[in-house]
Every structure is written in C-alpha cells, then in structure tokens.
Amino acid sequence: MTVDALIARMTRDAQAHIAAVRAGAEAEVAALVEAGARASSHDLEQALAAREVARESAFGIERAAAQRHAAASVLRAQHKFLDRVFARAESLATDASADSRYLQALPRHVANVVGYLGNRPATLRCRTKLAPRLQPLLVNTPQVELIADDTLPAGFIAAARDASCTIDCTLAARLATLRPQLEADLLSRVST
C-alpha cells in the first residue's frame, strides 16, 4: 500500500468516524431536547394544577363567605319580621282583656295562680276594668286581696305578701314567655 492510499484510507476512516460521532451527538441532542420539552410540559402541568387548586380553594372560601352572608341576611330579615309580629301582638294585647277568648281562659289562669300560692296571703293586682271579672273567681280565696291598678298592662299580677313569689300573668309577660316557641313556629312557616 502506498502512502497516498494509506492517507486516503485513513481520511475515509476518519470521516466515517466523524460522521458516526456527529450522528451520535445529534441523537443525544435530540434526546436532550425531547427530555427538556417533556420536563417543561410536566412543570407547566404541575404549575397549572397548583394554580387550579389555589383557585378552587379561593372559590370555596368566597362561596362559604357568601353563604354565611346570605344566611345572616335571611336571619336578620326573619328577626325583623318577628319583631314586627310581636310588636303588633303587644299592641293588640293592651286591649285583649275584653276579648271573649281571654275571658274564657281567665278562670283557669286564676285557679293556677291561686293553686301555686296555696294558703299564703297575697295580692292580685289588675286594671279597674278587669277587677269585676276577677272578683267572682276569688270568692273562695279570702287570703287573696284584689287591688285595682290601672298602671298595669292587660292581665294581672299576683304577689305573695311575704314577697316569696310574684306571678306575672299580664298578657305582655305571657307573650314574652311564649315568644321562643312562637318564634320557632313562625320561622318554620316562613320561606327562606
């Protein structure tokens, strides 16, 4: 083999080796580019997922706050409604002592109060207009003195003379004791 042939052969071998190295390098670069693209896509997906979680969390908090605000508004409206109902009931209670239903219930109320007082001396105070209705109910209870007091609301107040107990049977007091049950009943009927 001549020197020229040897140089030509070595040149071909070198060029083949360079081509092989170049092809390998290009394959590695392509693999790195693809891996980089996959990593970038994965990072982007994770970032978007994290944003979505944060957005859902913020939305949940805002929704809960809006629901609390709406519930508070409904509750305020219901209480305003109840306040109007009870204000009207209290205004009607001032003249209710002449109502036939109240007068029919009066003997039962007086009997309950007298039964609770027992034989203790007591006073029963009421408006002057109601006194004639109560007097016959107290005939058999000489220990209870009937006193007219026009400063009282409709109904009557019984008090033991020894100050051991006072029973407020005015309509305003009875309405106040019934208010929680009436509120619950009315609120169950009010649409929300």
- Give a count of the beta strands, DSSP E runs of length 2 or more: 4
The string of secondary-structure elements, in order, is: HHEHEEEH
What value does the Rg take, in angstroms? Answer: 47 Å
Q: End-to-end distance, in Å?
A: 106 Å
How large is the share of residues in beta strands? 5-15%
Overall average pLDDT: 83
Features:
alpha+beta, 192 residues, single chain
Describe the structure.
It is a single chain. The protein contains four helices and four strands. The N and C termini lie far apart (106 Å). A hairpin with a 5-residue loop joins strand 3 (155-160) and strand 4 (166-170). Strands 2-1-3-4 form a four-stranded mixed beta sheet. Helix 1 runs antiparallel to helix 4. The mean pLDDT is 83. It is an alpha+beta fold and 192 residues long. The protein has helices spanning 3-93, 100-117, 131-134, 171-189, and strands at 122-126, 144-148, 155-160, 166-170.
Q: What are the SSEs and their pairings?
A:
Layout: H1 3-93, H2 100-117, E1 122-126, H3 131-134, E2 144-148, E3 155-160, E4 166-170, H4 171-189
Parallel strand pairs: 1-2
Antiparallel strand pairs: 1-3, 3-4
Helix pairs in contact: 1-4
